[in-house]
Amino acid sequence: AKAAGRNTRRFFNPSMQARVLEHAEVANDIRKGMHNHEFVLYFQPQMGQSRQLIGAEALLRWNHPTRGLVAPGGFISVAEETGLILPLGQWVLESACAVLAQWAQSPKTAELSLAINISARQLVQVDFVDQVISALHHSGANAQRLKLELTESMLLNDVEDTIQKMHQLRVHGVTFSLDDFGTGYSSLSYLRQLPLDQLKIDQSFVQDLAEQANHTTIAQTIVTLAKGLDISVIAEGVETEAQCIALTNYGCEAYQGYLFGRPMPLEELVAMAAQ
Ligand code: C2E
Ligand code: CA
Ligand code: CA
Ligand code: CA
């Protein structure tokens, strides 16, 4: 059945037409949504080894007038395909910097870092570095608190160009985390070339931990790898105490997941920091 599927000639059928129309509709909706300020950032707590709050990841949400609060799965791919991810990503960057500048005003939040997700289309922009630097300058945010999450696949487009941009931003103090680590296909030698500060263990490997208690897990291997590269490591999708304990035993330094908090509005994250 698989082979037949692969050999099937693609042609434009009514269901595809419906999809194209839906696609165009979503794209228009995104444009309207940006104009009407319907996009918001949610913040998911990140905890350190002793389970103290060390920062957050900003995750995009769409406060849609009829669809309700929409997660990125419902619009990110359309935003990527249409290029709308560029203005949207710019908004995320500027909003995150504004939040960091605000956090700097209070001792309870001044030390927190904030991670944002960067899409491949943003990274390949010739003025990507300028965009980040000017967002930092305009907001007054401390570059050292801003973490950019990249994924393996996007780094492969033009490795030299990516490395150069990362170095330029690192001079200013910006840090980099490699998101969804382990799901891509980067070779280890290539990993060593990248000026990374952190590996982020993909949640699929964290979910596996419960069933694989007796042998070496991929999560454990990634922690060891990070230590070998002398960079930090964070696990995402930590949902249970058992997963967290296993990760701690491996030497994992930071955690993110429903065990500690779901993505939440800014005020809730700030309230968590005040505790
Ligand atoms: P991601 O960067 O891998 O983010 C982690 C996703 O896992 C988030 O989904 C988060 O809500 C979810 N998650 C966190 N903890 C747990 C857990 O304990 N269990 C489970 N099952 N899931 C957990 P979300 O918010 O729906 O975001 C999905 C993806 O959309 C993100 O995956 C990221 O790739 C993308 N995205 C989100 N915000 C942005 C953005 O501002 N820009 C770009 N380019 N992409 C974004
Ligand atoms: Ca991420
Ligand atoms: Ca991830
Ligand atoms: Ca992911």
From TrEMBL:
Domain EAL: 23-275
Keywords: ATP-binding, Cell inner membrane, Cell membrane, Kinase, Membrane, Nucleotide-binding, Phosphoprotein, Transferase, Transmembrane, Transmembrane helix, Two-component regulatory system
Compartment(s) of residence: Cell inner membrane
Official protein name in the record: EAL domain-containing protein
Source organism: Salinispirillum marinum
Lineage: Bacteria, Pseudomonadati, Pseudomonadota, Gammaproteobacteria, Oceanospirillales
Full-sequence portion shown in this chain: 640 to 914 of 914
